[in-house]
Every structure is written in structure tokens, then in C-alpha cells.
Design goal:
Blueprint lengths: L1 E11 L2 H30 L7 H12 L13 H18 L20 E4 L4 E3 L2 E4 L3 E5 L9 E9 L2 E11 L10 E6 L5 E3 L4 E2 L4 H17 L6 H35 L2 E5 L3 H4 L14 H14 L1 H15 L2 E5 L24 E3 L6 E3 H19 L16
Parallel strand pairs: 8-11, 11-12
Antiparallel strand pairs: 1-5, 1-7, 2-6, 3-4, 4-5, 6-7, 8-9, 9-10, 13-14
Helix pairs in contact: 1-3, 4-5, 5-8
Length: about 400
């Protein structure tokens, strides 16, 4: 079986290579923004928009030969073409009715998610990788790299540059070493409560660094925009954001790896994280209520990284030939896992559960995890119709 796997390393470029990477990222950003501006203009005038081949022809025959944009020749052509392909895909997704979160692409800002992709012409030797127009660039070889390279994406996170190398690997058909199933209730206080009694608290990285980040943001706001001191302070803010993200990813990777290795089937609630973490401020006509409390809850939900955790479990289970099943979230925290009695009075508080019918008492999260596992078995046995199909979610509290 052939799988594609990504390997991410931190680059250690020279000053000249760093300057070139900043330039390449800027050129790719300019191509994206110009394509988006042209597309929006065509949509406003109600004429057919341009797709990849026409955009590539315009870039090759007009933009690169014009006095206004001839500097595009300094960047690798294949990187610019990949940006055009990414824009083409973003536009097709925008008009695809099957895309759940379809939206119009946005203009890219300088210094925000700078990246460019090399689809070919890459090779590595020891702790060096050869990239077109950059030459040999050193990287921190934290783990061995496979031989068959497919592409390399160079990106910037804070003050550091990284390379993500996509490799094609041939592996034996995997068979999961476990034959057990587990239900997982994702929460705020406990990031993941498992039906087998195990719990993963989560890093709560943002909560631990929130005051430090707020102070750094206030210092940034007091400085003259785009001045040298503003640039230095902006880098400090970016470094704090990077640290928070790295701490969160580390905790989620450890938890998802542990769970996926020990269980062949994982069942979770199907949660609309973006909807659940939506602001409660409302608008000028209809003001929201409990805005401050909802804001704190939103921070906790996003800090827990529910969506990222689910994505990690999905691809790790795919590697191990396990499965991830989603069930409706309705009433899982109100139903007794022992007798099945479902009533709101069963949930005494955010953490306490006691059935009013059979007096079964348990932590509310672990009781919900057992209900989620039972619903997963019902779906496998009888289909989705075996469980409640509504997507209503009980309100959470911090």
C-alpha cells in the first residue's frame, strides 16, 4: 500500500536565503491578490471568470513581460503556478454547493501565513535540502526522511522558516493491533473524557499565556505603526502566538496518538465548533446577552482544539486501519448510561451526573462518553436512524 506522509523541519537559512524566501513569499502573495482582484471585478461586471489555464497564460505572456510586474521573473515559476492552482481550487470550492464552509477567497496580508510550494526539483543530502533558486538549505533533521520526495512547502511561523516535505511511502497493509472501541466526550474542563475511564485534560495553552499576550498586544498598540520598534514588538506577539499553538499541538498529538494506538474504533459527537464558538454580541438592532460569559466559553472551546483533535484522530486511525465514527450530540449528557433515562434534571452541574430514576452517579463527562460509545455501536448495527438525528447540543458552561 502506498501512502503519502508529510515531514516538517525547521530551516536554518543564511541571511541571503532568508531574504530570497521573503521575496518569493511576497511574489506569490502578489499573484494571489491580483488574481482575486481580477476575479472580483469580473463577478461585479457579471462576466465569466478566469480559471487556471487562462490565468497562467496571462501571467506568462503579460504580467512577467510588463514593466509593472516583470519582477515576478525573480521567483521560481513553478511556485507561482502552484499559487494559481491553489487559487483555482479555492474558487471552485467557493461555488461548490457540497462544500459546507464555502466562502469567497480573501486577500493575503504581508507577514501572515507566508508560504510557497515546490512541486518538483527538490532533493536532500544529510541535513540539507536543495530547493530551486535557493540552493542547499540546512534544516534541523529531527527524524529520518523517506527517499521518494513529491513536493516541498516552505512556510514562515513567527521568526522561523519551516519546510514540509511530502513523501510517498510504500508500507504493508496495516492491521490495527487493538480490537476495542472507545467513546470520547470533548469538553472544556476535561478536553477528552473516554468511556474507559481515561481522561486528557489538555494544555490550556491560551489560558496560561493570555495575560502575557494581552500585555504584548497593548505595547504593540502604543507604538508607531511600521516603525522599527513596532516591527520588533510585532515579532514578540507572533512568537507568543506560535508558542501557544505549539504547546496545544504537542498535547493534542500525544493524546490522539495514545488513543488511536489503543482503540480500533473511536466514537465522538459531531460538533459544529464554529457555530458553538460564535460571538454572542449580536448587532446594532439586536444586542446579545451574556456576552462576557459566552466570550470566555468561546476562548475555552477554541483553546481545547476540538476540531484539530478530531482531524488528528481521523488520519492516525486511517494509517492504523482503525475507524472514527460520529454520532449526533443531542442528549448524550442528559441520558443515564445505566438505565437510559433521559431528563435534564439528571445533569446536576457541569461535572456532576445523578440519574433521578436509578440514582446512578458519575462524572458527567464520563457518563456522556459511555452514551456516545453506545450510540456508535447502534449506528454500526442499525444505521444513523438508530439514534436521534437532531444536531442540538446542550449548552456548556465554563
Amino acid at each position: 500500500m502506498i501512502i503519502r506522509k508529510g515531514f516538517k523541519y525547521r530551516l536554518e537559512p543564511s541571511a541571503a536565503q532568508r531574504a530570497d524566501m521573503v521575496m518569493f513569499a511576497g511574489h506569490n502573495r502578489a499573484v494571489w491578490n491580483k488574481d482575486l482582484a481580477l476575479t472580483k471585478d469580473r463577478l461585479e461586471r457579471k462576466i465569466p471568470i478566469s480559471w487556471y489555464h487562462e490565468l497562467n497564460w496571462n501571467m506568462t505572456n503579460f504580467w512577467k513581460k510588463s514593466d509593472e510586474m516583470n519582477w515576478l521573473n525573480d521567483a521560481p515559476s513553478q511556485c507561482l503556478q502552484q499559487t494559481l492552482k491553489q487559487f483555482d481550487r479555492a474558487m471552485r470550492d467557493c461555488f461548490d454547493k457540497n462544500q459546507p464552509n464555502k466562502r469567497m477567497p480573501r486577500f493575503k496580508k504581508k507577514g501572515v501565513k507566508d508560504s510557497f510550494l515546490f512541486p518538483q526539483g527538490i532533493s536532500f543530502e544529510g541535513n540539507r535540502i536543495k530547493l530551486p533558486k535557493l540552493g542547499w538549505v540546512k534544516f534541523r533533521k529531527s527524524r529520518d526522511l523517506e527517499e521518494k520526495l513529491k513536493s516541498a512547502t516552505v512556510s514562515r511561523n513567527g521568526k522561523h522558516w519551516f519546510v514540509s516535505i511530502l513523501c510517498e511511502i510504500e508500507v504493508a497493509e496495516p492491521v490495527h493491533t487493538s480490537n476495542t472501541a472507545v467513546g470520547i466526550d470533548r469538553g472544556v474542563a476535561i478536553m477528552a473524557a473516554c468511556s474507559d475511564g481515561r481522561e486528557y485534560i489538555g494544555a490550556k495553552a491560551f489560558k496560561k499565556h493570555e495575560k502575557k499576550l494581552a500585555r504584548a498586544g497593548r505595547l504593540l498598540a502604543r507604538k508607531v505603526k511600521f516603525s522599527n520598534n513596532w516591527q520588533k514588538q510585532k515579532e514578540k506577539v507572533q512568537n507568543i502566538h506560535s508558542k501557544i499553538a505549539n504547546i496545544r499541538k504537542d498535547a493534542l498529538h500525544k493524546a490522539s496518538t495514545d488513543i488511536s494506538k489503543n482503540h480500533a474504533m473511536i466514537v465522538m459527537e459531531k460538533l459544529g465548533v464554529s457555530r458553538m464558538s460564535k460571538s454572542a454580541k449580536g448587532n446594532s438592532e439586536k444586542h446579545g446577552s451574556n456576552v462576557k460569559a459566552k466570550s470566555g466559553l468561546n476562548k475555552s472551546i477554541l483553546d481545547a482544539g476540538w476540531a484539530m483533535f478530531a482531524a488528528m484522530l481521523e488520519y492516525k486511525q486511517a494509517w492504523l486501519r482503525g475507524m472514527v465514527e460520529y454520532v449526533p450530540a443531542a442528549y448524550t449528557s442528559q441520558r443515564c448510561s445505566e438505565c437510559g433515562h433521559t431528563v435534564k434534571a439528571n445533569r446536576l452541574s457541569q461535572s456532576k451526573f445523578q440519574c433521578v430514576q436509578c440514582n446512578h452517579a458519575e462524572n458527567a463527562d464520563f457518563n456522556a462518553a459511555k452514551n456516545i460509545l453506545a450510540a456508535g455501536h447502534a449506528v454500526l448495527a442499525c444505521g444513523v436512524g438508530a439514534v436521534v438525528t437532531t444536531m442540538k447540543q446542550e449548552p456548556l458552561a465554563v
